[in-house]
Amino acid sequence: MATFGTLSDRLTETFRNLRTKGRLTPADVDGTVREIRRALLDADVALPVVKDFTAKVRERALSDEVNRALNPAQQVVQIVNEELVAILGGEQRRLQFAKNPPTVIMLAGLQGSGKTTFAGKLARLLEKEGHTPLLVAADLQRPNAVNQLQVVAERAGAAIFAPEPGNGVGDPVRVARAGVEQAKQKQHDIVIIDTAGRLGVDAELMKQAADIRAATNPDEVLFVIDSLTGQDAVNTAKAFQDGVDFTGVVLSKLDGDSRGGAALSVASVTGRPIIYASTGEGLEDLEPFHPDRMASRILDLGDILTLIEQAQQTFDAEEAAKVAEKLAKEQFTLEDFLDQMQQLKKMGSMKKMLGMLPGMGQMKQQLDNFDERDLDRTEAIIRSMTPGERRNPKLLNGSRRLRIARGSGMTVTDVNQLVQRFEQAAKMMKTVARGGVPSIPGAGPVGRPGASSKRGKPQKAKGSRSGNPAKRAAENAGIAAQAPATPTGSGFGLGGGGAQGAPSEADLAELQKLLGRG
Question: What integer pLDDT is reported at residue 324 of this predicted model?
Answer without folding.
Answer: 61
